[in-house]
């Protein structure tokens, strides 16, 4: 076991020495030797060799440029967590150079590298959020990644922060902060040209700030002058307003006095109207009581009249029934007599006595005149207003009327004696 561990350590040390030799050859520009040393190490799965072999394929150094093979070597190293390979693979997907462009995959590999504090990857993630590539545009998220990259001295990240402050992207607009970030970007610039560009942008901002400051001072002075004039005008207006207010107070006092007078007059009129209403209410109540009393008397009178009529009608029905029974009896007696005395029966039948006449005679007594039973009201009774009020309204539910209204002649024919 100890021998195996020693062997592995020696093998790792030998591999590290080969990697260092290959990196030195690549740095010296001896790409043939570097490729020769990287290939067997990459085939053994060394992530550094895999990444650098991918670089040689992508940059057309000795080996013919082949982005597909470069992507394969980047992927092999990236899957082992090698941050530089993840960054290169993500940028290859982002640009779509030699392979299909895929922003989702680009953001995935760049984010993995950015989380390992790879400044280039952090800058690229920020730029993808700012441009909305593969994700919704989000300047706040972009500023977060720019700050992380700037903390590691990435000049472009400083410049991007300066631009965000200048235009108010993801942060509050602030030209002073933008000028500051352009200055730090110039300090971290990788070449003179880049440095000069950042300094020129800072100079433009500083001039704008100075010009704006001058303009703001002038505007401030003008504003103060306007405020002074406004204060003077306000004092004059206050004096005029006070005079107007005093006049208004006088008018209000006079109006209040007039209103009190009118209110008193209205109260007097209202009191008089209330008295009139009370008197009208009293008169109406008296009238209603009088009408109610009169209606009660009339209803009692009508009830008595109905009772009399009903009694008379019942008596007449009894008399007629009795007459009918007597006539029937006489008829039966005549019928029996006719069988025994035919001649008498014929003579008696020649002069029959009217049943109704006989009935009248029987109902007549001591020279008194009989009248038919009264079942209707007279014309004078029908004209009485309370009689009309006692009738059911037109269209009401059917029922027995209080009084049968039908104007007829009051017959006073004297019965035949």
Walk me through what this model shows.
It contains 15 helices and no strands. With 417 residues, it is mainly alpha-helical. The protein has a domain at 11-116: Serine Threonine Protein Phosphatase 5, Tetratricopeptide repeat. α1 (2-28) runs antiparallel to α2 (31-43), α2 packs across α3 and α3 packs antiparallel against α4 (67-78). It starts with a helix and ends in a 28-residue tail after the last helix. Mean pLDDT is 82; it is low at 1-12, 345-375 and 399-417.
Compact overview of the structure:
By secondary structure, this protein is mainly alpha-helical.
Number of strands: 0
Low-confidence stretches: 1-12, 345-375, 399-417
Helix content: over 70%
Q: Helical segment tally?
A: 15
Q: Summarize the biggest pleated sheet.
A: none
CATH first level of the domain at 11-116 = Mainly Alpha
CATH superfamily of the domain at 11-116: Tetratricopeptide repeat domain
Rounded radius of gyration (Å): 65 Å
Q: Under the CATH scheme, which architecture of the domain at 11-116 would be assigned? A: Alpha Horseshoe
